[in-house]
Specification:
mainly alpha; 191 residues; Hypothetical protein af1432; 0% strand
Length: 191
C-alpha cells in the first residue's frame, strides 16, 4: 500500500473524530506526516522504504487509541514494521497515566521518536493557533499540558544516531513551538 492509500485508509478510520471545538481531527494526520516528510527529505537520512514506513505509521499513530482497529488488523494490512511503529506510539493506558507511555516512547526506536517529535510540533502549533481566550488557555494549561509536558521534557533529552540532522530540525521546532505555546497560554492567564 502506498502512502496516499494509507492516508485515505486512516482518514476514513478517523472520520468521526473531532477536537473539542468540533474541528475535524483528520487534518492532524496529514500535517504531522508532512512535517516528518519535510525533515526526512531535507536531510536525506532515510531509504525510501523506511521513509514510507515512518510516514504511514504517522498517519496511523492514534488509530489503536482512538478507533476500533486492532494491532493484528494493522499488521495484516501494513506489515509488522509499520504496526510496530504504530504500537510504539500508542498509550496503552489513558491520558491520565502518562509516566509509562513517556518512558515507552523515550526508549523506543528512533523512528518512533521522530514520529512523536512531529506529533508534538503539530500539537503545539494547534495550541498556539487555538489559544485566543482565557477559557481556552485554562483548558490547555489544566488538560493538555499535563499530558504533553512530561513527554516534551523527556524526549528532548534523547539522542539520535540514525537521524541526527532530522532529529535536530524537529528538536528545534518542538522547542520553538513549546516555548511559544507556553508563552501565549501564560500571557492570557496573567490578564
Amino acid at each position: 500500500m502506498d502512502r496516499q492509500q494509507a492516508f485515505l485508509f486512516f482518514r476514513i478510520l478517523h472520520k468521526d473524530q473531532a477536537y473539542s471545538d468540533w474541528s475535524p481531527y483528520r487534518p492532524h494526520l496529514l500535517r504531522v506526516g508532512n512535517i516528518l516528510q519535510y525533515y526526512l527529505e531535507l536531510y536525506w537520512e532515510w531509504s525510501k522504504k523506511i521513509r514510507d514506513a515512518i510516514i504511514i505509521a504517522w498517519y496511523g499513530h492514534d488509530s489503536l487509541e482512538d478507533t476500533d482497529i486492532s494491532l493484528v488488523a494493522l499488521e495484516k494490512k501494513f506489515g509488522k514494521q509499520i504496526s510496530d511503529f504504530i504500537f510504539g506510539m500508542t498509550n496503552e493506558q489513558s491520558d491520565a497515566h502518562t509516566d509509562t507511555y513517556v518512558q515507552k516512547v523515550a526508549n523506543a526506536p528512533e523512528e518512533i521518536r521522530l514520529i512523536k517529535l512531529a506529533d508534538m510540533c503539530d500539537n503545539y502549533q494547534w495550541m498556539i493557533y487555538k489559544t485566543n481566550t482565557k477559557k481556552i488557555a485554562k483548558f490547555f494549561k489544566k488538560k493538555i499540558m499535563p499530558i504533553i509536558e512530561p513527554m516534551y521534557q523527556k524526549i528532548i533529552t534523547t539522542s539520535f544516531s540514525l537521524y541526527p540532522k532530522t532529529s535536530e530540525g524537529l528538536f528545534s521546532d518542538v522547542r520553538k513551538y513549546h516555548n511559544l505555546a507556553i508563552g501565549i497560554i501564560d500571557e492570557l492567564l496573567d490578564f
